[in-house]
Amino acid sequence: METTDQVLSFEQAMAKLEEIVSRLEHGDVPLETAIELFQEGMRLSQLCGSKLDQVERKIELLIETEQGLQRNNFNPVNEDKGE
C-alpha cells in the first residue's frame, strides 16, 4: 500500500518542505503546530533525500571507448573543493 508521500514527486515534496520552513521561520504558529510542522518537514526531508539517492543510483554515464560503450557510475563533483 502506497502512502501519500510515496506518490509525491520530488518537486512537490520540496515545495511542501519550503512552505513548512517559511511558516516555522515566521514563528507565528502555536508550539503544538510547530512541532507537527517540524515532524512533517523531517519526513519530507527524508523523502527528498531518498528520491535523490534513487536518482543518483540510476544515473550512469555512457562513455564511448574503442571496445564500444562502457557504463560508468555517476560520481558527483565535489563543489566544496572546487573540483
UniProtKB/TrEMBL annotation:
<dbReference type="GO" id="GO:0006308">
    <property type="term" value="P:DNA catabolic process"/>
</dbReference>
<keyword id="KW-0963">Cytoplasm</keyword>
<keyword id="KW-0378">Hydrolase</keyword>
<comment type="function">
    <text>Bidirectionally degrades single-stranded DNA into large acid-insoluble oligonucleotides, which are then degraded further into small acid-soluble oligonucleotides.</text>
</comment>
<comment type="subunit">
    <text>Heterooligomer composed of large and small subunits.</text>
</comment>
<dbReference type="GO" id="GO:0005829">
    <property type="term" value="C:cytosol"/>
</dbReference>
<protein>
    <recommendedName>
        <fullName>Exodeoxyribonuclease 7 small subunit</fullName>
        <ecNumber>3.1.11.6</ecNumber>
    </recommendedName>
</protein>
<dbReference type="Pfam" id="PF02609">
    <property type="entry name" value="Exonuc_VII_S"/>
</dbReference>
<dbReference type="GO" id="GO:0009318">
    <property type="term" value="C:exodeoxyribonuclease VII complex"/>
</dbReference>
<dbReference type="InterPro" id="IPR003761">
    <property type="entry name" value="Exonuc_VII_S"/>
</dbReference>
<dbReference type="InterPro" id="IPR037004">
    <property type="entry name" value="Exonuc_VII_ssu_sf"/>
</dbReference>
<comment type="similarity">
    <text>Belongs to the XseB family.</text>
</comment>
<keyword id="KW-0269">Exonuclease</keyword>
<keyword id="KW-0540">Nuclease</keyword>
<dbReference type="GO" id="GO:0008855">
    <property type="term" value="F:exodeoxyribonuclease VII activity"/>
</dbReference>
